[in-house]
Amino acid sequence: MPALSSSFSSSSSSSTPPSSIGKRLVHVRKPEGGAEAARAGGNASRRDLPTDSLGYSLVLAARVLAGVRAGKSLTPALAPLADEPAAARAAALDVVYGVLRCHGRGEFILGRLMARPLTHAETQALLLAALYRLETRPTAAPMVVYQTVTASGELSGGALQGVVNGVLRNFLRQRERLLAELRQDDAAYFQHPAWWLARLRRAYPEDWQGIVEAGNDPPPMTLRVNARRISVDAYLDQLRAAGLAAEAVGGVGVRLGTPLPVKRLPGFAEGLVSVQDAGAQRAAELLDPAPGERILDACAAPGGKTAHLLERAEARVLALDIDAARAARIEENLGRLGLAAEVRVADCLAVDRWWDGRAFDAILADAPCSASGVARRHPDLKSLRRESDIRKLARAQAAILDALWPLLKSGGRLLYATCSVFTEENAAQCDAFLARWLDARCAAREQWLPNGQHDGFYYALLRKA
């Protein structure tokens, strides 16, 4: 079994044999004033914590994590961090993404150290954040414990500081035995929900561990060079001149040696490049637009694939998205790149409300999906996604395909795309479509599994007879 390359990998791959450890349970006592006293601390100010302290960033991280654990997606959960100092925000993001990528691991450990979870959600999340820091910064354990206890005072009004201190010190005492026991729990060890692992094992008996490993790693940062403005070689020269390591990938891709903010990329504001995974760049290559063609991008936001189609050919593209804010992002991205398309806020299923009756030469159906192939970029999915979602998404994907197929010219092509690795959304979806529509032929299928070079995607190029 290959060692997982998550932040916990060195410990989780220990050869220490599992043992039935004598668990030292921390029995959570009800603080004076009852649960309300603990909850009241959630609104305490952080004026006593320096903004450059670990405790401050742990408070920020705990509040985000508590939101995700309550069912909020990561983007809105992170919104309150926008006005925080840059260094504190960066430190909090490191912890948030680390904890979410290591899904199930911290919960497993806390389950061995506590009789029951804390009812104070932010302090429970703080403990997960602290365990992550203790694993990734083992030499700083005393400081991490001290700062976490201080942070818990801000979150719980001081009511749970003793509990937090006891849990973390118990972890440090029992760490090796706890991590040995953790190896026997697949969900905690592989850091994915059990149902997710079961699906991967069935579909990819030889590759599932590599998929899991990739899902636990930070993703690569890949750029798409705007071929209308500059060549790949010329842009690589600009990167080298700026002291940035990079290599060419695919047709117009450039993978950076180290991720960095886009404002540091030469020519980004001027539209020379866009951020787009190498696997996502395959969509425009497969659809292969020709000059003058009328093309529909049916689920277009934020506009990366729309832009790539236009960078490849002078086509007439209609880009739809059901969400107005996301549709606005399509316009912004096209404007930065110096490209133009017709962008409309519309539900692609409500054909009568937006279609003018003229058939399209090509259609891109980048359908809503589980995003299981890009979970490392959206690690909250491990917590939020449910197995029952897959069937619901598959029904929605089938509805989109059935609604769009009649809009295609005879001899035209439709590219069905997902960022999923689950068969029900991919090959099985394509097979079912071909059985329903006898005038459809599959010209190409590609399943990209996530690895260190790119994310996970599925493509099926369908041609109308």
Word description of this protein:
- There is one protein chain.
- The protein has 465 residues and is an alpha/beta fold.
- It has helices at residues 9-12, 35-40, 54-69, 74-78, 86-101, 105-113, 121-136, 141-156, 161-182, 186-190, 194-203, 208-216, 232-241, 282-287, 304-312, 324-337, 381-384, 387-404, 427-436, and strands at residues 222-225, 246-249, 253-256, 273-275, 294-297, 316-321, 342-345, 360-366, 408-418, 440-448, 457-464.
- α7 packs across α9 and α11 (194-203) packs across α12.
- The radius of gyration is 25 Å and the shape is globular.
Keywords:
alpha/beta, 11 strands, 7-stranded mixed beta sheet, 465 residues, Rossmann fold, Alpha-Beta Plaits, 3 domains, 19 helices, N-utilizing Substance Protein B Homolog, Chain A
Instruction: Provide mean pLDDT, rounded.
Output: 91
Number of E strands: 11
Secondary-structure element order, N to C:
HHHHHHHHHHHHEHEEEHEHEHEEHHEHEE
Helix fraction, binned, reads: 40-55%
CATH topology of the largest domain: Rossmann fold
User: Ranges with pLDDT <50 over ≥5 residues?
Assistant: 1-46
| Rg, alpha carbons | 25 Å
Major sheet: order of its strands?
7-6-5-8-9-11-10
